[in-house]
Design brief:
- This protein is mostly helical.
- It has ten helices and no strands.
- Helix content is 71%, strand content 0%.
- Helix 2 packs antiparallel against helix 3 (65-77), helix 3 (65-77) runs parallel beside helix 5 (99-111) and helix 8 (161-174) packs antiparallel against helix 9 (180-191).
């Protein structure tokens, strides 16, 4: 289901804490979206139950960014991209600093192969990180690195291998203790037969 053009959010996010953001929360979001995406047909009843739950919550609290966000995650997991997009956009209109909703919207565009839209969302989010607040600088770096990795994936999907590599290298510098960016870059380089560049990065990630 192709996603339609999203109405512009009210304003770019300027902080990381206003919607209860934490790096752990982002990890949970990413894992949850992945798990929902892997559900088989015989588990669709679970989706229907959760959809009913949050749809009912939306009727009670139509201006809850959290409810719209959860509905976006649920529909994205079922590849109902237009519905997911609508809820993520609505969440951002209600809470413009809701970074998880920005990430969810970018992920929907990437999954639907709307890479230009995905890159634009990640660009906006990454630029805002300079004025964002977090519990520690390390947390802010971890969030920024996650956004860079996601933008790298979108750029690679679009065919911009060099832009993708640049983003992953920047993510590596921001989060030395997290090997995710190292592994993704090594995988990308090796897949493109750039073994002399990819193997050392892979070794570094596995140390």
């Amino acid at each position: 289901e192709a996603a339609t053009a999203a109405p512009a959010p009210a304003a770019p996010p300027t902080g990381a804490a206003s919607a209860g953001l934490s790096p752990i929360g982002i990890v949970i979001v990413v894992v949850l979206a992945g798990l929902l995406g892997k559900r088989t047909l015989d588990r669709n009843e679970d989706f229907a139950s959760m959809d009913t739950l949050f749809t009912s919550a939306e009727e009670v609290a139509p201006d809850s960014a959290r409810v719209h966000y959860q509905l976006g995650v649920l529909h994205a997991g079922q590849k109902l991209f237009t519905k997911a997009e609508e809820h993520f956009v609505r969440a951002l209109q209600i809470a413009p600093k809701f970074i998880q909703a920005f990430i969810g919207l970018g992920d929907v565009y990437s999954a639907d192969r709307n890479f230009d839209k995905a890159i634009a969302i990640y660009n906006e989010l990454y630029k805002s990180m300079g004025s964002a607040t977090a519990s520690t600088p390390e947390q802010l770096d971890a969030i920024s690195a996650l956004v860079l990795r996601k933008r790298a994936q979108a750029k690679l999907g679009k065919g911009d291998a060099e832009g993708s590599r640049a983003d992953l290298e920047q993510a590596m510098r921001l989060s030395n203790e997290d090997p995710s960016a190292h592994l993704e870059l090594a995988q990308t380089l090796i897949a493109r037969d750039q073994h002399p560049d990819g193997i050392p990065i892979l070794r570094e990630a596995l140390q």
